[in-house]
Amino acid sequence: MQFAKAFEYKKWANSQLLDFGERQFSKLPENDGIFFLRILNHTTVVDSLFTSRILGEPEKYTADNTVETPSFSELRERMAHNDTRLVQYVMSASKDELDKVIQFNFIDGDIGTMSVEEVLLHLLTHGNNHRGMASRVLAENNLERPKDTFTRYLHLVEPTRRGSAVLKEK
């Protein structure tokens, strides 16, 4: 269940960042705008690659990014698709499925071996890292960034967690 919350958060945080980026895109220098789109596209490609590996499906990509830079609408569609698949997967995955060890070929040709749980942790941390890089592009250009922390997400989706709890004295 915790994986489900983490991937629901990832989906929300991706959408938040795309919203902020798209709204302010015209204020970014061209190279920063391209970087913003490409770094998030990279995370989407990596999500797709590893989801295919987990599910034993053919991979759609032969590199860790696409040659072309997607539009916001293309990127939003790809991210939402991958995020939805990951949320659905983790909501139904059994402990045995999470413990399963898979072997695969990385894009560079090396062989990798990871448990499904390790792959999922990688996707969460990888996405966080690159969302941070994209968000920094906004900050460096004095633009507004999303307040997309996990705690904020939890309090938005479960408002009773905020302000109503009484702390116990130690």
TrEMBL record:
Q: Fetch the Pfam families from UniProt.
A: DinB
Among Gene3D superfamilies, the record links this protein to: dinb family like domain
What are the binding positions for a divalent metal cation in this chain? 42, 126, 130
Asked if the record carries the keyword Oxidoreductase, the reply is no
Q: Which GO terms describe its molecular function?
A: metal ion binding
Family matches, as InterPro entries: DinB, DinB/YfiT-like
Q: Which UniProt keywords apply?
A: Metal-binding
Does this entry carry the keyword Hydrolase? no
Query: What family, per the record?
Result: Belongs to the DinB family.
Protein name per UniProt: Damage-inducible protein DinB
